[in-house]
Amino acid sequence: MCSCGQSAGVSWRCSHLVAASLSIIAFGAQPLPMPTMPKLHLPFPRVYDGAELASFSFQDNNNMARFHKNYPMNKLISGVKFINTLNLLPHSPTGNVKSCIRIDSETHEEKKKCVHALMVKAEARTEKHDDPELSRRRRREEEKLKMTRRMHLIFFWLFFSLWISVVVSTDEEGENMAALLSIKSQLDDPLKVLQDWKLPAEAAGSPYCNWTGVHCNSAGLVDGLDLSRRNLSGIISDDIRRLHALARLNLCGNSFSSSLPAALSNLTVLQELDVSDNDFVGHFPADLGACPSLLSLNASGNNFEGPLPHEISNATSLETLDLRGNFFSGSVPPAYKSLQKLKFLGVSGNNLTGRLPAELGQLASLETLIVGYNELEGPIPAEFGNLTKLQYLDMAIGNLHGPIPRVLGKLQFLTTVYLYKNNIGGEIPSEIGNISTLQLLDLSDNLISGTIPPELSQLANLQLINLMCNKLKGLVPAGIGELPQLEVLELWNNSLVGSLPADLGHNSPLQWIDVSSNSLTGEIPAGLCDGGNLTKLILFNNALSGPIPTGLSTCLPLVRVRMHNNQLNGTIPGGLGGLPRLQRLELAGNDLCGEIPDDLSLSTSLSFIDLSHNRLSSTLPPTILSMPTLQSFSAADNELAGEIPGEIQDCASLSALDLSTNRLFGSIPSSLASCERLVSLSLRNNQLSGGIPSSLAMIPTLSILDLSNNFLTGPIPDNFGSSLALEMLNLANNNLSGEVPSNGLLRTINPDDLAGNPGLCGGVLRPCGGSNLPQESAAKSTALHIKHIAAGWVVGITAVLSIGIAVFGARKLYKRWLADGLCCADNQFDEEFGGSWPWRLTAFQRVNFTSADVLACVKECNVIGMGAMGVVYKAELPRHHGVLAVKKLWQAETGDLVTEVSLLGRLRHRNIVRMLGYVRNDREMMILYEYMPNGSLWEALHGKQHQQQHQQRVLVDWVSRYNVAVGIAHGLAYLHHDCYPPVIHRDVKSSNVLLDASLEARIADFGLARMMVHKNETVSAVAGSYGYIAPGRYLFSNLLVHDYELVTMLIWLILSSNCGTEYGYTLKVNQKSDIYSFGVVLMELLTGRRPVEVEFGEGQDIVGWVKEKLRRDQGIEELLDATAGARCEHVRDEMLLVLRIAVLCTGRSPKDRPSMRDVLIMLGEAKPRRKSNGSAVAASCNVVGMDKPVFTTSLDSDYL
């Protein structure tokens, strides 16, 4: 009766089923009592044969007739049993039964008719002779019998239905268990969270409904599976389709890296699917649109690629569709308009292009729309004004342009608008003031102009206003200061004027205000912290005046106060040191006076204090340098007097101390040595006296020490030469005396750093007791410089008159250097270097070699390159286990060049080739650099290494090339923005970018760099190399030259005369010239082509060629280097992002080119979302990763 099959997993149900069946049968077979009639055991109507009829007792004709009525003769089985049954019947007075039996056996139907007639007659006779009472009782009994029969029938169907359902349910449960075990078998479960997924025999009889993450419905079938954040990986088994009742599936927060099975589309009752925050790859299963019950689909934070699945539009019940943070490409399908129940649509953080479809404006139920972090372009559709239920709108970071639609002001439920980092122009529509529910408004990093509309003051729920980095002008509306919910006000980097609202912060929980880099005037509002929530106050680079509000001294939440470069006056208010969270205090570049408050030294949180460039007077607080959290303290360029506090304790965190250009006197306290993390110490331009404490050399991290322009006396401590960290030491212009120690750094120190100490001698200075060689050398150098100027004019005029003569002269010079510098034997070098001109080594950091060690390596066999400025040698120093790059300059050394090299030698950045020092005599100079084992970027892209297929190649994938581009950008940004005065390289090209052992870019060859004196000053000198120079006209446009280095050298020779002839495109250069050259290098990385190639056409360079291709919309495949992976769609898209940056950098007008800081931001946004594996495999389409954010705002606390 119970068909349980052979599965052990369901055998436990069989006994219950059998027991239930037997009990129902037993209950259904119980006879119902009949008071007056003999008991007739008939459970329910059925067909009886003759033998069974014999078991019943018929006591009279009435019983027989009643039996016949209920079980007519045509239901009886014929044959012998029929004959035997007839013998049981009493003889009827109206007919003879035996006469019926004697009928021929062949006419069986006639026999039955005969018997039936006799029984009818008997019944009629019986009823005729019954009395009325007996008839009524008989009718009641018949009705009871009918009721009994109906009850039996009901019991039968109940039992049958229950039996069928139990059998079917048992089969479904077995299939569910088998599906779950199959799913587990294909999962990697390192934490064993699914260890209870076992067969019941092993799990102590627990059913699967109690397994981890499994939820069952009332029928015992799996309707929910939650495996979120279990550290699972592997693949999802196709057997998941066997869970027919599954309505909720949650796999988020795991490490699945396979594709999603198409079998999910078989789950016809699926309502919720969450596979977010995994590494799923491939195309998204389009058939999921066939799930009619699907309400929520979250696939964010994966590696899905290909187009967005437009088939999802068939799932018309869908309310949530979240596909953010993937690699989807193409456009947003207009078919999504059919999702009329959709409330949440998120497709941000993909590679989507094209325009936003206006059809999305038909999604009448939409509440949240997030489409940012893509490359979407075009205007914001005006149809979005029909999204009357919209609450959250995020279209940040894209290429949207045009004005903000005024119809957005109709969206009365809108709380959030994020449009930052687009190209949106026009003005801020005043209709935004109609959105009374608006809380967060971020329009930063766009091209918005005009003024801030006063209507914003009507938005009483506004919490965030971010309009930074636009082109806004005019006043800050006074009503903004009265917004009761305002928490963040970001207006920096605009052209705003006037004063800040007087009530700003007075009636609101203001937490963050940044109005820096504007032209604001007036005083700082006094009530900024009246709400007691202000954490960051950023006001630098304005023209604010008046005193610092005293109320800030009681603003306990303050973390950062940045007010530098204003016109603030008065004193520094007391109490700032008592703020428990204050970390940064920048008041430099103002007109503050008075003393430094003593309470600053009591702070337990301050880490950065800059009070420089003011008029502070009096003395330093006694314990100002003993603050436990202080990392940097600068009070330079003030009027401080008195002594440096002598009792310095607990300064373990101090790394930079600058007290230069004050009126400090007395001795240098030896207790400074307790600052064991001190890296930079500047006490120059004071009135300090006494000796130099030898304990300073014992600071293990001290790298920069400037004690120049004081009144220090005594000798240089001997242990200064043995300091392991000291790299830059300036003791010039003091009263030091004695012999300069000849060990360590002091053995190779720049003599200029010891100048102005007439009592010093020995070491790199004149020998103690000898003649005044430095003065003689200076006089000789001055005379030589005058001669060079005169000779320069002659050479320049000659060069202008005849290019041919210049070319001939260049070739003669090249041959002379080739003979004297490259092809001489060792004994010739020894003869030259050992002559009457002694070589002197000047080092910019500690080195463990001598000039003789370097000169011994300058020989033909060690030549590794030749550039516009000289020959480059590889100097292996076996005795010192080091390798250097030595550049022997073409041009004779001059005093200006020594000065510049000395300045450049102080530069320190990971993307700048470190200049270790130089070796020179009276006529020649060699510059010493770090050695870069992977050569130059030019060689990696175009040289022999690129052509040799059997050698291990570098930069074969786009990620490696992208990292090189970022490294170059970091190096140039350091030169342009972090050096004072700024440095322009002036010859940025791929051959001047070297690759270290980790393939990180290092900018080299500062032979053409010049230090900029003022911010916008331009310099007239060599302006770069052929193919890398900004637009104009070429001097040699008709000269076909393939030896680019020779051309560069020729240009250098012509222009070294200062003749003023136009070179290349222009002689006026600034940082934007470097940026143009950087753009050319980007194009080299992207295309794999040289800056000038024959295929570009006559007079055409790589910039013109690229722009021409883009203008004619020719195949991108022709532009991008296939060896870097450009054939793969997602790699090509990443390369195109950088190509756009390259085009911006090579703009024809310098004002159209971005700064290097802007370039770094753009490169950060174009970052590939996977890692390089250093081999050709990295160029394949299978390399995926995940770096792009799903969603973020433009508020980043770290940018400050």
Automatic annotation (TrEMBL):
Main subcellular location: membrane
Gene3D superfamilies xref list: Phosphorylase Kinase, domain 1, Ribonuclease Inhibitor, Transferase(Phosphotransferase) domain 1
Residues in Protein kinase domain copies: 858-1170
Ranges annotated as spanning the membrane: 153-170
GO cellular component, one term: plasma membrane
InterPro entries hit by this protein: Kinase-like_dom_sf, Leu-rich_rpt, Leu-rich_rpt_typical-subtyp, LRR_dom_sf, LRR_N_plant-typ, Plant_LRR-RLKs, Prot_kinase_dom, Protein_kinase_ATP_BS
Protein topology in the membrane: Single-pass membrane protein
Keywords attached to this entry: ATP-binding, Glycoprotein, Kinase, Leucine-rich repeat, Membrane, Metal-binding, Nucleotide-binding, Receptor, Repeat, Signal, Transferase, Transmembrane, Transmembrane helix, Zinc, Zinc-finger
Residues that, per the record, bind ATP: 888
SWIM-type domain boundaries: 1-25
Pfam families listed in its UniProt record: LRR_1 (PF00560), LRRNT_2 (PF08263), Pkinase (PF00069)
Locations listed in the record: Cell membrane
Cleavable signal peptide: 1-28
Annotated PROSITE patterns: PROTEIN_KINASE_ATP (PS00107), PROTEIN_KINASE_DOM (PS50011), PROTEIN_KINASE_ST (PS00108), ZF_SWIM (PS50966)
Any one GO molecular function term: receptor serine/threonine kinase binding
SMART domains: LRR_TYP, S_TKc
Annotated family: Belongs to the protein kinase superfamily. Ser/Thr protein kinase family.
Protein name: Uncharacterized protein
UniProt source species: Zingiber officinale
